[in-house]
Amino acid sequence: MRDNLVIIAGGGIGGLATALTLQQIGVPCVVCEAVREMRPLGVGINLQPNAVRELYDLGIGPADLDRIGVPAKEWALVGLNGNDIYAEPRGLLAGYNWPQYSVHRGQLHMLLYDTVVARIGAQAVRLGQRVAGYRKNANGGVTVSLEGADGARSELTGALLIGADGIHSAVRAQMHPTQPPIHWGGALMWRGTSWAKPIRTGASFVGLGTHRERMVFYPISQPDPATGLSMINWIAEVTMDNAEGWKQSGWFRQVAIADFAHHFDNWVWDWLDVPALLREADVAFENPMIDRDPVPTWRDGPVALLGDAAHAMYPTGSNGASQAVVDARVLGAAMVEHGVTPEALAAYDEKLCGPISQVILRNRGAGPFGLLNMVDERCGGTFDNIDDVIPAEERSAFMAGYKAAAGFAVESLNKAAPTIAPGARVAG
Questions:
Q1: pLDDT tens digits, residue range 149-159?
Q2: How far apart are CA 185 and CA 363, in angstroms?
């Protein structure tokens, strides 16, 4: 193996974005992924402009992203009586130099995977190989323990290990053996997709309800020319008593629509029929809204965490996948400056760990959906004029604070130099 080989634990969005970044800057890498076969799993996610900028710089451009989603035009919060709480343009319409995309998570994943295979080769992703742990070596490198899907065990040695192995990360568990268990705040989510006519701008992200019961929905495909229907991604959410913690054996399961649709039986307006939207879904998946407490560092010598392994967060800010892409690029920039060294991991950790830990806590406090909570506290969720409940200046300041913390404030993002300069390579 090359002396500067980087081993990546996990072939999700963060791990594959890291592989593409390392290939771009001339660093050899291998991705070890537990599943035997890559498949397009999941439903809708949003890619914020800061992540789209990085994908463009990786050569994944509008033509690629248009195939798997749609550029978002609006982000809106709506009260229980159907009146707007807050609405703003998104992406290019908001003045960003890059769009925001609502995409199918599985199709994005496969796009990244196919791109890795095309650019680096199929051997760059070892399927059916789970990173179970690591050992720091006297020469400064790292050896990882691999568990095959067939039960076989092996080892692989490299210069660095990037733990991008998700919320259940084995790398993080070894790095922080006393970390608290996964945190569940009491919100239960049901996710699915339905074919329906898109509303408002035709590419609007809409949050509706309160912190106790909420719907989020947005299109992830262009309208079918024949029917005018788009694939609408939706999330139905109910907050319940979590005093005894999560009691089910798993974190993700398929359920019948009838298991939860009754919570939203009365959510019908002249512009939206939630029960009808739910009925159009073929399948729904249930999972609790979970995250992990922030840790003081993402680094242990030649080992660093990335993506959900570093900062699993509530999806209230629609920036979990976006941050994983940004992580990969910041890590690559650190290697351009410091080489394939633990010093590069230290620089990456110094730049992101503290600020993104604060985003975890902001999202746990409802993130931008905190406006729904404020309306509920002040008027019970029903109002005629939102300005009488929360003045426009207060609403705008609330949203600006979140975008700044999450790294996609429009002026600062537009003015920022590329994370990795065009043509930059790691010396040697």
A1: 889 999 999 99
A2: 11
